[in-house]
Each structure stands twice: as structure tokens, then as C-alpha cells.
Amino acid sequence: MTDLYAEALSTFATLFGEAKAAGTEIEPNAMTVATATPDGRPSARTVLLKAFDEHGFVFYTHTHSQKGRELQDNPRAALLFLWRTLREAGIQVRVEGVVTPVSDAEADAYFASRPRQSQLGAWASIQSETLDSREAFESRMAEVEARFAGGDVARPAGWSGYRVAPDALEFWYGAQFRLHERWRYACDAAGAWSKRMLFP
User: What is the pTM assigned to this prediction?
Assistant: First the structure.
């Protein structure tokens, strides 16, 4: 890990810690994940960050969902954290990078840590597909509750995680009158990291 990349990750860890400690952010680990089809059609949604280290930022989902299909075909993503209540006028962090699936062992370990109802919901949901009615989903929930009654809930084969390995991170510090401060860290094709300040 280069010094500048380590600095960027340390900055993120500090800001993430502030967001968690502030008590004013409902879900400080919430982040927007933007993906795109191979022909450049974008889509975005909010998910929860579940881990991060020098290897990247991890979230979990159904691999057959829209984002899962898009990441299969175009394995790049952009993440956006918005902590609106921090410091003078909020903080944003942007992360861009290549996406790879987490290992089965990582996915199994995280799935086992989830609340049982969330585990059952992962079986009952065919994420992003058409649902005829809420009653139909409740019926599917009842079926999987019966299936796993009295036992552990195994991770569904189509449910796993993705890791976004950054090649760019940007820190946006909000200020009054939109006189914000922005710092961008980026990695070039040779693997060298740079840091520069951007206009607001």
C-alpha cells in the first residue's frame, strides 16, 4: 500500500468514525452504489457498507439483482457516502474502482452474522424481479420459515458480496456559500497514486 493510498484510507476511517460517533446519522454506513450496463446505462441505489480495508469496500446483495447483473457484465462501480450533519456543512466521500466478488468464506461468515429474519428474507426475495403482491412475498417468507424451522439458515447460492477496490477516492468538505474543499486521490495505470485539490 502506497503512502498516499494509506493516507486516503486513514482519512476515510477517521470520517467514518466521526459519522458513527456523532449520533446524528441514521445509518452512517449507508452508501449509494452506482453501476452501469456495458452500453453505459447507469443506475444507483443505497446499500450498506459492511467492511473496508486496504483491499476495498464490501457490500452484500443478491447476485441476480439488477446491480449484480450489471456488475457481472461491467465490473466497475462508484460509491458515494453523504454524512450531511458532519462539521460545517456536511461531508461526502466518493469511491470509484474495480469490483470483484468476495470469497465464499467471507459471504458465509457475514450471512451467519445477520438476524434470522434477514437470512430468511434473502431466501424469500427474488431481488429486482416483479412481485405480484405483498401477500405473495409473505407466503414465500412463510415457506422458508417452515423449511428452516429449528435449524440454521444456510446462505442462498445467489446471495453474496462484492468488493470495490478503489482507484480513486475523493473527499468533499462542505462549507458555507458552497465554498467547499475537495481532495482527490487517484491511481494511474502504472499503480502510482497522486493527490490534488479540486475547485469546489
Answer: 0.94
Which whole-number Å values give the CA distances from 83 to 23, 48, 118, 125, in the listed order? 11, 14, 26, 30
Assess whether 178 carries a catalytic annotation: yes
Give the 3-state secondary structure of the chain: CCHHHHHHHHHHHHHHHHHHHHCCCCCCCEEEEEEECCCCCEEEEEEECCEEECCEEEEEEECCCHHHHHHHHCCEEEEEEEECCCCCCCEEEEEEEEEEECCHHHHHHHHHHCCHHHHHHHHHCCCCCCCCCHHHHHHHHHHHHHHCCCCCCCCCCCEEEEEEEEEEEEEEECCHHHCCEEEEEEECCCCCEEEEEECC
Indicate the burial class of 83 (C-beta count within 10 angstroms; 0-12, 13-18, 19 or more).
buried
Please tell me the predicted confidence (pLDDT) of residue 187: 97
- Which residue is catalytic, options 87, 178, 182, 184? 178
Other beta carbons less than 10 A from residue 139's beta carbon: 11
pLDDT at 1 over 80: no
Instruction: Convert the pLDDT of each residue in 70-122 to its tens digit.
Output: 999 999 999 999 999 999 999 999 999 999 999 999 999 999 999 999 999 99
